[in-house]
Amino acid sequence: MTAVVTAAVDAYHLGNSLRYPERFDLAVAQLGEQATAAEWPADLGVSLRDIADPAHHLLHVAGRYASRGLAAEAVAALRRSLAALHYPDYALLGEPYPPLAETVGLVAATDHLHRDRLATVLAAVEPLLADAGTDPNRDELAEVWDELRAAAVDAPGPPGQ
Predict the structure, then answer these.
(1) Taking the C-alpha atoms of 24, 27, 32 and 38 in order, what is their torsion angle to the nearest 10 degrees?
(2) pTM of the shown model
(3) Of 135, 106, 140, which Cα lies nearest the Cα of 122?
């Protein structure tokens, strides 16, 4: 019941609040073995058309995919989030996105809540890419880390740095 109520509260705030710190994952974790977040859709079943801040919500989606070990899906949600910073309609339209080099510069214009969430997601995705061996996204993700460090000195660095 806790997870359902929390999902409903999250859905309300996702439609009405910018940089909303989604609480669903925490509620599911508190349930212990009774439930897992993997039983729920990574996007919580909320349409991006109804989200006030799709770029930020997509970072939460990417984090959920990363926590499930789904590297490709996590990177896809991360790219979609960065594209939505460039032009919000990318959240709805999907690919093709502008090159990551064009969107990563917009990270500096976001607030600390967005940059902190981005750093958390990147830290979760990085080990998944390392496990996948050679990955073409590695250089692009390094660019995101560089821009993030330039935008916020207090943001954590990539694993191993």
Answers:
(1) -10
(2) 0.80
(3) 140
